[in-house]
Amino acid sequence: MSDNPINSYDKRINRVCEYIDQNINQDLTLDALSDVAAFSKYHFHRVFLVYTGMSVTRYIQLARLKRASYRLAFENEKRVIDIALEAGFESPEAFARAFKRTFDQSPSEFRGEPNWPEWHLRFQFQPKPYGAIPMNVNIIQFETTKVALLEHLGAPEKVLETAGKFIAWRKATGLSPVKTSKTFGIPYSDPKTTEPEKFRWDVCGTIDTDIPANDYGVKNGIIPGGKCAVVRHKGSHSNLDTSIYAFYREWLPNSGEEIRDYPCFFHYVNFIYEVDECDLITDIYFPLK
Protein backbone atom coordinates (compact mmCIF):
# COMPACT_ATOMS: atom_id res chain seq x y z
CA MET A 1 0.00 0.00 0.00
CA SER A 2 1.34 3.43 -0.92
CA ASP A 3 1.80 6.35 1.43
CA ASN A 4 -0.99 8.25 -0.29
CA PRO A 5 -2.49 10.49 2.43
CA ILE A 6 -5.97 9.32 1.42
CA ASN A 7 -4.96 5.93 2.80
CA SER A 8 -4.37 7.59 6.16
CA TYR A 9 -7.98 8.76 6.19
CA ASP A 10 -9.11 5.26 5.22
CA LYS A 11 -7.21 3.87 8.19
CA ARG A 12 -8.72 6.39 10.57
CA ILE A 13 -12.26 5.63 9.45
CA ASN A 14 -11.57 1.87 9.50
CA ARG A 15 -10.29 2.31 13.05
CA VAL A 16 -13.62 3.88 14.01
CA CYS A 17 -15.58 1.04 12.36
CA GLU A 18 -13.51 -1.52 14.25
CA TYR A 19 -14.03 0.37 17.50
CA ILE A 20 -17.80 0.41 16.95
CA ASP A 21 -17.83 -3.31 16.18
CA GLN A 22 -15.80 -4.07 19.30
CA ASN A 23 -17.81 -1.80 21.62
CA ILE A 24 -21.29 -2.29 20.27
CA ASN A 25 -22.83 -2.45 23.76
CA GLN A 26 -21.30 0.85 24.82
CA ASP A 27 -22.67 4.38 24.54
CA LEU A 28 -20.96 5.32 21.29
CA THR A 29 -20.96 9.10 21.48
CA LEU A 30 -19.81 11.50 18.79
CA ASP A 31 -17.08 12.79 21.12
CA ALA A 32 -15.71 9.29 21.74
CA LEU A 33 -15.76 8.27 18.08
CA SER A 34 -14.22 11.51 16.83
CA ASP A 35 -11.40 10.95 19.36
CA VAL A 36 -10.84 7.46 17.95
CA ALA A 37 -10.64 8.94 14.45
CA ALA A 38 -8.45 11.84 15.63
CA PHE A 39 -10.86 14.27 13.96
CA SER A 40 -12.65 17.28 15.37
CA LYS A 41 -16.20 16.32 16.29
CA TYR A 42 -17.41 19.17 14.09
CA HIS A 43 -16.01 17.48 10.99
CA PHE A 44 -15.86 13.77 11.85
CA HIS A 45 -19.49 13.00 10.90
CA ARG A 46 -19.01 14.39 7.39
CA VAL A 47 -15.69 12.61 6.82
CA PHE A 48 -17.26 9.35 8.01
CA LEU A 49 -20.17 9.82 5.63
CA VAL A 50 -18.03 10.40 2.55
CA TYR A 51 -15.88 7.38 3.32
CA THR A 52 -18.64 4.90 4.15
CA GLY A 53 -21.66 6.27 2.30
CA MET A 54 -23.70 6.44 5.50
CA SER A 55 -23.93 8.40 8.73
CA VAL A 56 -22.16 7.10 11.82
CA THR A 57 -25.55 6.73 13.51
CA ARG A 58 -26.74 4.49 10.68
CA TYR A 59 -23.50 2.49 10.80
CA ILE A 60 -23.99 1.86 14.53
CA GLN A 61 -27.61 0.85 13.99
CA LEU A 62 -26.61 -1.53 11.19
CA ALA A 63 -23.93 -3.09 13.38
CA ARG A 64 -26.49 -3.70 16.10
CA LEU A 65 -29.07 -5.02 13.64
CA LYS A 66 -26.43 -7.33 12.22
CA ARG A 67 -25.86 -8.87 15.63
CA ALA A 68 -29.62 -9.04 16.16
CA SER A 69 -30.02 -10.93 12.89
CA TYR A 70 -27.53 -13.53 14.11
CA ARG A 71 -29.47 -13.83 17.35
CA LEU A 72 -32.72 -14.36 15.45
CA ALA A 73 -31.28 -16.90 13.06
CA PHE A 74 -29.12 -18.93 15.42
CA GLU A 75 -30.46 -18.40 18.95
CA ASN A 76 -34.09 -19.45 18.84
CA GLU A 77 -34.30 -19.49 22.62
CA LYS A 78 -33.82 -15.71 22.79
CA ARG A 79 -37.00 -13.65 22.89
CA VAL A 80 -37.48 -10.94 20.27
CA ILE A 81 -38.02 -8.33 23.00
CA ASP A 82 -34.63 -9.18 24.54
CA ILE A 83 -32.94 -8.97 21.14
CA ALA A 84 -34.65 -5.63 20.51
CA LEU A 85 -33.47 -4.17 23.82
CA GLU A 86 -29.93 -5.42 23.24
CA ALA A 87 -29.97 -3.68 19.85
CA GLY A 88 -30.85 -0.37 21.53
CA PHE A 89 -34.57 -0.21 20.69
CA GLU A 90 -37.14 0.76 23.28
CA SER A 91 -39.80 -1.65 22.04
CA PRO A 92 -40.22 -4.73 19.83
CA GLU A 93 -42.39 -2.61 17.52
CA ALA A 94 -39.62 -0.07 16.88
CA PHE A 95 -37.15 -2.90 16.40
CA ALA A 96 -39.48 -4.66 13.95
CA ARG A 97 -39.93 -1.50 11.86
CA ALA A 98 -36.19 -0.85 11.63
CA PHE A 99 -35.43 -4.50 10.90
CA LYS A 100 -38.07 -4.71 8.17
CA ARG A 101 -36.90 -1.43 6.63
CA THR A 102 -33.30 -2.67 6.58
CA PHE A 103 -33.64 -6.32 5.55
CA ASP A 104 -37.06 -6.37 3.87
CA GLN A 105 -38.14 -9.10 6.31
CA SER A 106 -39.77 -8.86 9.70
CA PRO A 107 -37.82 -10.35 12.62
CA SER A 108 -40.17 -13.35 12.71
CA GLU A 109 -39.85 -13.88 8.94
CA PHE A 110 -36.08 -13.68 9.20
CA ARG A 111 -36.05 -16.09 12.11
CA GLY A 112 -38.13 -18.56 10.11
CA GLU A 113 -36.27 -18.29 6.79
CA PRO A 114 -33.44 -15.73 6.53
CA ASN A 115 -32.91 -14.15 3.13
CA TRP A 116 -29.12 -14.19 3.37
CA PRO A 117 -28.38 -12.84 -0.14
CA GLU A 118 -30.42 -9.71 0.64
CA TRP A 119 -28.84 -9.55 4.09
CA HIS A 120 -25.32 -9.52 2.64
CA LEU A 121 -26.13 -6.57 0.40
CA ARG A 122 -26.69 -4.41 3.47
CA PHE A 123 -23.11 -4.81 4.62
CA GLN A 124 -21.22 -3.99 1.48
CA PHE A 125 -20.10 -0.53 2.58
CA GLN A 126 -18.77 1.64 -0.20
CA PRO A 127 -17.50 5.24 -0.22
CA LYS A 128 -20.13 7.69 -1.34
CA PRO A 129 -19.52 8.30 -5.07
CA TYR A 130 -19.28 12.04 -5.38
CA GLY A 131 -16.68 11.89 -8.13
CA ALA A 132 -13.96 14.44 -8.72
CA ILE A 133 -15.11 18.03 -8.46
CA PRO A 134 -12.88 20.85 -9.73
CA MET A 135 -11.93 22.82 -6.66
CA ASN A 136 -10.05 26.04 -6.13
CA VAL A 137 -8.97 26.19 -2.49
CA ASN A 138 -7.36 29.29 -0.98
CA ILE A 139 -5.53 29.34 2.33
CA ILE A 140 -6.17 32.56 4.24
CA GLN A 141 -5.72 33.98 7.71
CA PHE A 142 -9.21 34.72 9.00
CA GLU A 143 -9.35 37.59 11.47
CA THR A 144 -11.28 37.16 14.72
CA THR A 145 -14.70 38.59 13.89
CA LYS A 146 -17.19 40.11 16.28
CA VAL A 147 -20.76 39.12 15.41
CA ALA A 148 -24.33 39.31 16.52
CA LEU A 149 -25.80 35.83 16.38
CA LEU A 150 -29.15 34.12 16.64
CA GLU A 151 -29.08 30.41 17.44
CA HIS A 152 -31.34 28.00 15.63
CA LEU A 153 -31.89 24.67 17.39
CA GLY A 154 -34.26 22.31 15.64
CA ALA A 155 -35.28 20.99 12.24
CA PRO A 156 -33.08 22.22 9.36
CA GLU A 157 -36.24 22.91 7.38
CA LYS A 158 -37.01 25.76 9.77
CA VAL A 159 -33.71 27.64 9.58
CA LEU A 160 -35.31 30.21 7.30
CA GLU A 161 -37.69 31.11 10.13
CA THR A 162 -34.67 31.88 12.30
CA ALA A 163 -33.05 33.80 9.45
CA GLY A 164 -36.23 35.85 9.08
CA LYS A 165 -36.20 36.68 12.78
CA PHE A 166 -32.57 37.77 12.52
CA ILE A 167 -33.36 39.98 9.53
CA ALA A 168 -36.19 41.56 11.53
CA TRP A 169 -33.71 42.33 14.35
CA ARG A 170 -31.30 43.86 11.87
CA LYS A 171 -33.97 46.09 10.43
CA ALA A 172 -35.33 47.11 13.83
CA THR A 173 -31.96 48.02 15.35
CA GLY A 174 -29.72 48.92 12.42
CA LEU A 175 -26.80 47.40 14.34
CA SER A 176 -25.74 44.97 11.61
CA PRO A 177 -27.01 46.35 8.30
CA VAL A 178 -27.19 43.75 5.55
CA LYS A 179 -25.65 46.02 2.93
CA THR A 180 -22.59 47.04 4.95
CA SER A 181 -22.07 43.98 7.19
CA LYS A 182 -21.09 40.43 6.41
CA THR A 183 -23.53 37.58 6.98
CA PHE A 184 -22.35 34.18 8.19
CA GLY A 185 -23.94 30.83 8.91
CA ILE A 186 -22.38 28.28 11.28
CA PRO A 187 -23.74 24.72 11.11
CA TYR A 188 -22.51 22.73 14.11
CA SER A 189 -23.24 19.39 12.45
CA ASP A 190 -24.46 17.91 9.19
CA PRO A 191 -28.24 18.36 8.88
CA LYS A 192 -28.44 15.14 6.89
CA THR A 193 -27.00 13.05 9.70
CA THR A 194 -28.25 14.89 12.79
CA GLU A 195 -31.51 14.31 14.62
CA PRO A 196 -33.70 17.32 13.77
CA GLU A 197 -34.14 18.42 17.38
CA LYS A 198 -30.36 18.43 17.89
CA PHE A 199 -29.39 20.40 14.79
CA ARG A 200 -27.81 23.76 15.61
CA TRP A 201 -27.12 26.54 13.15
CA ASP A 202 -26.14 30.11 14.05
CA VAL A 203 -26.95 33.00 11.73
CA CYS A 204 -24.52 35.85 12.30
CA GLY A 205 -23.91 39.42 11.19
CA THR A 206 -20.76 41.41 11.80
CA ILE A 207 -20.98 44.27 14.32
CA ASP A 208 -18.76 47.08 15.54
CA THR A 209 -20.15 47.36 19.05
CA ASP A 210 -21.78 45.18 21.69
CA ILE A 211 -25.50 44.69 21.26
CA PRO A 212 -27.91 45.22 24.16
CA ALA A 213 -30.36 42.63 25.44
CA ASN A 214 -33.35 42.31 23.14
CA ASP A 215 -36.60 40.42 22.63
CA TYR A 216 -35.32 38.67 19.49
CA GLY A 217 -32.82 36.48 21.34
CA VAL A 218 -29.87 37.90 19.39
CA LYS A 219 -26.60 37.61 21.32
CA ASN A 220 -23.02 38.81 21.12
CA GLY A 221 -20.49 36.33 19.76
CA ILE A 222 -17.25 35.90 17.88
CA ILE A 223 -15.97 33.76 15.06
CA PRO A 224 -12.41 32.90 16.12
CA GLY A 225 -9.53 33.84 13.91
CA GLY A 226 -6.96 31.48 12.46
CA LYS A 227 -5.84 29.74 9.31
CA CYS A 228 -8.69 28.63 7.05
CA ALA A 229 -9.13 26.92 3.73
CA VAL A 230 -11.76 28.70 1.65
CA VAL A 231 -13.83 27.18 -1.14
CA ARG A 232 -16.21 29.27 -3.22
CA HIS A 233 -19.53 27.53 -3.86
CA LYS A 234 -21.70 28.81 -6.70
CA GLY A 235 -25.37 27.98 -6.88
CA SER A 236 -28.11 26.76 -4.59
CA HIS A 237 -27.55 26.58 -0.85
CA SER A 238 -29.21 23.16 -0.95
CA ASN A 239 -26.11 21.87 -2.80
CA LEU A 240 -23.53 23.18 -0.36
CA ASP A 241 -22.78 19.63 0.77
CA THR A 242 -21.44 18.83 -2.70
CA SER A 243 -18.57 21.28 -2.19
CA ILE A 244 -18.15 20.35 1.47
CA TYR A 245 -17.84 16.61 0.88
CA ALA A 246 -15.52 17.13 -2.10
CA PHE A 247 -13.23 19.19 0.12
CA TYR A 248 -13.07 16.49 2.80
CA ARG A 249 -12.61 13.65 0.36
CA GLU A 250 -10.42 15.09 -2.37
CA TRP A 251 -8.51 18.16 -1.20
CA LEU A 252 -7.93 17.66 2.52
CA PRO A 253 -6.23 14.21 2.48
CA ASN A 254 -3.72 15.40 -0.13
CA SER A 255 -3.08 18.80 1.42
CA GLY A 256 -1.03 17.88 4.47
CA GLU A 257 -3.37 20.09 6.50
CA GLU A 258 -5.40 19.15 9.58
CA ILE A 259 -8.82 20.48 10.56
CA ARG A 260 -9.08 22.72 13.61
CA ASP A 261 -11.67 22.05 16.33
CA TYR A 262 -14.26 24.53 15.07
CA PRO A 263 -17.08 23.98 12.58
CA CYS A 264 -16.84 24.94 8.97
CA PHE A 265 -18.85 28.10 8.34
CA PHE A 266 -20.40 29.99 5.47
CA HIS A 267 -20.07 33.58 4.29
CA TYR A 268 -23.15 34.43 2.24
CA VAL A 269 -21.74 36.81 -0.37
CA ASN A 270 -25.16 37.48 -1.89
CA PHE A 271 -28.77 36.48 -1.25
CA ILE A 272 -31.62 34.75 -3.03
CA TYR A 273 -33.68 37.94 -3.15
CA GLU A 274 -30.83 39.71 -4.95
CA VAL A 275 -29.89 37.16 -7.62
CA ASP A 276 -31.18 34.01 -9.29
CA GLU A 277 -30.48 30.83 -7.32
CA CYS A 278 -27.90 29.69 -9.88
CA ASP A 279 -25.94 32.92 -9.23
CA LEU A 280 -25.71 32.59 -5.45
CA ILE A 281 -22.15 32.80 -4.10
CA THR A 282 -21.18 31.27 -0.77
CA ASP A 283 -17.65 31.09 0.60
CA ILE A 284 -17.13 28.01 2.76
CA TYR A 285 -14.45 28.32 5.45
CA PHE A 286 -12.71 25.22 6.85
CA PRO A 287 -10.68 26.10 9.98
CA LEU A 288 -7.17 24.61 9.88
CA LYS A 289 -4.59 24.04 12.57
Automatic annotation (TrEMBL):
Gene3D superfamilies assigned: Homeodomain-like (1.10.10.60), Regulatory factor, effector binding domain (3.20.80.10)
Sequence ranges assigned to domain HTH araC/xylS-type in this UniProt record: 14-113
Protein name: AraC family transcriptional regulator
InterPro entries recorded: AraC_E-bd, GyrI-like, Homeodomain-like_sf, HTH_AraC, HTH_AraC-typ_CS, Reg_factor_effector_dom_sf, SmbC-like, Tscrpt_reg_AraC-type_HTH
Protein keywords: DNA-binding, Transcription, Transcription regulation
